[in-house]
Write a structure and sequence with these properties.
The protein is mainly alpha-helical and 140 residues long. The protein contains four helices and no strands.
Length: 140
Amino acid sequence: MVSDAEKYKNEDELQREKVTAKNALESYCFNIKSTVEDEKLKDKISDADKKVILDKCGDTIKWLDANQLAEKEEFEHKQKELEGICNPIITKLYQATGGMPGGAGMPGGMPGGMPGGAGAPGAPGAGGNAAGGPTIEEVD
């Protein structure tokens, strides 16, 4: 029994990594979609940018449905591709709004982080808070 466990340990780890990569891609798609469809942001994002993100997320979700057995690298490649399209638009959105109101939309920040290390206000490493006031470190 122990020998069987050792025998399948590497196989199990590869499968776990594959499922994690698939779930990360799927989660990223749905989080991005919910962010751009947020009522509070509808005036802050152009229809063209919103369409680009929604179309790409829709295409990625269709790809996921058709490629359930894809390899970890394929899921990671798709996520990088999606991030390459979405991150500049989301960064522009964050810069235009001064951050998400109340940190809504993506708790803990963007999956995978924002380019340049920026994230949702209040997220670790974001360096600010939703109210725009000084942080404890700045007051001390």
